[in-house]
Every structure is written in structure tokens, then in C-alpha cells.
């Protein structure tokens, strides 16, 4: 699969009432979600029957009686707390937050586009809800993860992967990655500790709220690796549910967060057969022909053992707090390593496996079969080059590192805060810096701090996937320049204004249209054509009224195979059914033949 796999994001938004000293966030969340619906979609229920939030990937099932109430996310709600979006996604109330779940996509760049579409959908819902509210108490949404007073909410990632990969292997490798990827995916945070007990700045918003290594829970004692085994797909795949990430505003860290994780899952899948992994490591080639100078395959188990943390949770906090980027974390072996060193090894392991699987070019680089994977691997290398350069710079130099800050969100936010500190003479504990941090996440263009500096951030043209600026090639070294080797550029750039305009158009389109190559397309298409006939929807099932059987009859279509119900396969069936004047139930009957139902 390489980087291409089904993936998607979920974003919980912070919510407040402007100017109000006291407000009910749950009530405000209901108002926003209700505003996201229309007359046609407000009656459609979310189908909870296939959900099982207590199923544990470690092979157990938590009894409902033993579960905390907030873990029971499969209990139906009577109020309008679920809306199926026009793009096949979902808008709903999760505890005290409005949440957007993006439709299923097949690559990280599309996932970023539909993630941005969620921001626009939620902003429009807020504007609609505010029309019924006094101007001095308008609702405001924030794309962030903390309030600095002890509360945290999630920005989750979801990846479909082969179930054949043992879960303990997933835990071992993902722990290394999730702890160390913060150096280029962190969105930055003012304050240290859950309650901002200490003044300062750190790389990640989410890190201080992680307190265990593996667990089923998402709202308390949060784990580095979430064990919820609720796939919403066929039994051959699992859904890896990731809860440790930040709510990025910038394109590059968001794409890297998704892309690098997907590549490491590919590495696990390639080596899920231990005998095959041993054979390929010994031979140096498999389906492709690795060049004689290629790095031999690095077995995942050896990699995980080499860098296993002495205390993974402590390492998570330590990496986030270390603005020098030079601090080493303790390993179980008694040695130490930096987050940068671990990330370089992870990148090297993926590249080595790629050389074996697909062969290499004249430079020894893998001949990746798709452009998305080539872009992610180049961006990963660039990110580590950026981090190396920042690591060797003092604060004065960091303030002027505009190129690196265009790709490292935490650095761009730090520059903004540090310039304010120097201009005003305040210390890191000043409330105005906390306000800057909060304003960074505001979705309201009038108050968004990020909105004022976003022109400094590198944008990805999601149509081509190319960055506005160039991506460095060559080897990696922990030096002030960050990159070694030829230092060549890929030469593929886009005019910044053109890219920003095109990205905005793509996002608007993504609010209305579903991805064409996953089951999200069918969900959105049926919603558009038969809104009054649909009774309920979920990620894996669609239920419509079937009057031919009974006045209250219903018909359910199982769409558990996420890659079967695409536009290419389903559109001809639907067009034919509509031309014949068939009902929604009859159309689903025709569609069911595609899945052998």
C-alpha cells in the first residue's frame, strides 16, 4: 500500500460564547451541530448498532458495567447531535465539544484537504447559529487541544491497516514514532504541565496530557497508543486510532503527521511475516532489485528493541519540553538517544524496505510506485533537515529562520511569542502570551492569530501535492545546515498566491463533494439523491425506508468494504436506477449486488 491507505481525521473544537462570563459548552455544541444540518438531513439518525468502543486490540473486551460513562460512545442520543455532512463526513457532539469526522480518503494530502473542509463546515455552522444569538454572546470555535487549566480534547487520526500485524509490534514501533514525531508535527504551546504550572513554551499541545503507554480510554489516563479495536470495516483490517496528535493549522505538519505514520504502518505490514522479513534482510532484495550499496532491511523488532524507552510517558513529556532539540531520552538498554536520531532511523528503515520492495534508482533511492509516497518521503527528509538546522541555532538565529518556520508550526508560533516577549519585556507566564496561543486556534478570521501569519506558512497544493517552496534532497546529517549530499532542489514550485487561492477553492469543493475513491462517495451521493428516504447512516451501513415490504419497512445496505463502494463502481448503478424511476430501497437493492448481498 505504501503511503496510500484509507485514513481520516477527527477534530474536537473548543467552544465559547464571546463576552460571556458563564456559558454551557454542551448547549453551545448542540446549537452548532444543529446549525450544520438542514431540513433534509436533520431527521437522519446515526446508526450506533455496529459500534463497539469497548473492544480492545489486545484481545479483551471491557464489560459495560466496568466502563466509565464517557467511554460509552455507542449510546444513541435523542437530540440532534449527529449530522451527516454533504461530503460524507460527520458532525456531532462529543461530550462538551462539537466534532467533525472527515470522510474516508486514500492519501495524506486528500486527508488534509478534507480536514480543512471540516474547519470551513464548522465555521459556517457557527455563523448560522450566531444569527439567532445577540452580538455580544456570539459562539467562537477554536482548533486547539488545551485550555491550560487542566482540560484537553482530541485531534484524532485513523488508519486502516492489515489485521495480520501483531498488535504488540504496532505498539512497539508506534510508541517510538509518536513520542519523537513531535519535533516536526507539534503545533506549539504556551505553558508547561496540564494546568500550566510552569511558565514556558513547548513543542506539543497534547504531550502533557498523555499518562500511560497503551489503553482503551481516550479522555482519562490517556495512552500513547490507543487500543480501541473498532474498525468499521471488514474483519481483515483494523483501524489504528491515534489520539496523541496536535490540532495543526499548517499544511506541512498535518500532512507529515498522516504520511509518516502511514509509511511506518506500511513497514510493519511488509514485515508482518517474520520469516519473509528475515529472508529479505538476508538477501538484500525482494520483488525489486536493491542496488549493491543499498542499506539492508532493518527488522522492525530490532529497531523497536534498540530504541525502547526506559519510560515512554516521561520521554513523551521530555521531548515536548526540550526546545533545544538536543536533549537525549533514556532507553531501556541504558543508552540514550535524541528524538531526531530516532526519527532518522525510522526514515532509514522505511527507505531500506522501499528499496527492497521496489528497487532503486542510480542514486540508491527507492523507486516508489506513486507520487504521494515520493512526496511524503521527501517532506520527511526535509523536516528532519529543518529540525537539524534549528537545533544548531541560538534564539537570535531562530527568530530569523523563516524557511524552517514555514514548515514547523511550533517554531512559527514560538517566533510570534518570542517577538512579543522582546517587544513588551514580559515573561513566559504573562497572560497575554496565553491569549496569543488561544488566538492561534481561533476559526474566526477576524480574531485568528494564525490567520494573520498564515501567508508565512508553506501551503500544499492538494491537486498536485507540491509545496509552494522547494524540498531539499540528499542525505541527512546533524549539522547546522541540516542537509548534506548534493543539496539539490526538486525544482517543482508553485506561485504562493496561486497555491493559496487554489487550495481555498479545493477546500470549498471538499465541503460539498465526497472523495470519489472510497465509500464516502456513496454515502454522500445517496444523501443528495434520497435525503427523505434515509433513516440512518453510519460509516459501514446505510438504512432507507422500504415501503414495498411494510408501511414502516426498512432496508439496510452493508458497506463495510470501504474500497468497494466508489464512484466508478456505484455511479452507473445509481444513474440507471434513477432513470428507471426506482425508489431508494430499490436502488439499494441494485447496489447490494455489487457486494454480493
Automatic annotation (TrEMBL):
<dbReference type="GO" id="GO:0005524">
    <property type="term" value="F:ATP binding"/>
</dbReference>
<dbReference type="GO" id="GO:0016811">
    <property type="term" value="F:hydrolase activity, acting on carbon-nitrogen (but not peptide) bonds, in linear amides"/>
</dbReference>
<dbReference type="GO" id="GO:0000502">
    <property type="term" value="C:proteasome complex"/>
</dbReference>
<dbReference type="InterPro" id="IPR004347">
    <property type="entry name" value="Pup_ligase/deamidase"/>
</dbReference>
<protein>
    <submittedName>
        <fullName>Proteasome-associated protein</fullName>
        <ecNumber>6.3.2.-</ecNumber>
    </submittedName>
</protein>
<dbReference type="GO" id="GO:0016874">
    <property type="term" value="F:ligase activity"/>
</dbReference>
<dbReference type="GO" id="GO:0019941">
    <property type="term" value="P:modification-dependent protein catabolic process"/>
</dbReference>
<dbReference type="GO" id="GO:0008233">
    <property type="term" value="F:peptidase activity"/>
</dbReference>
<comment type="similarity">
    <text>Belongs to the Pup ligase/Pup deamidase family. Pup deamidase subfamily.</text>
</comment>
<dbReference type="GO" id="GO:0010498">
    <property type="term" value="P:proteasomal protein catabolic process"/>
</dbReference>
<keyword id="KW-0436">Ligase</keyword>
<feature type="region of interest" description="Disordered">
    <location>
        <begin position="471"/>
        <end position="492"/>
    </location>
</feature>
<dbReference type="InterPro" id="IPR022366">
    <property type="entry name" value="Pup_deamidase"/>
</dbReference>
<dbReference type="GO" id="GO:0070490">
    <property type="term" value="P:protein pupylation"/>
</dbReference>
<keyword id="KW-0647">Proteasome</keyword>
<dbReference type="Pfam" id="PF03136">
    <property type="entry name" value="Pup_ligase"/>
</dbReference>
